[in-house]
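User: quick one, fold this
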Amino acid sequence: MDPAPRPLAVVDIDGVLADVGHRLHFLDRRPKDWKGFFAAARTDPPHPEGIDPCR
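Assistant:
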């Protein structure tokens, strides 16, 4: 017999688990600086409102 399936959640990272507010300025430019936006992702602080429900 297979064990009971475990609950599964699929969540987004940008803006849900990670606070991207500090790097949104890269997208204010024309053309948008997507390379800079994603390069700055390593400094994203955790977003408690998104992380807490996933625990």
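User: anything notable?
Assistant: The chain has a mean pLDDT of 91.
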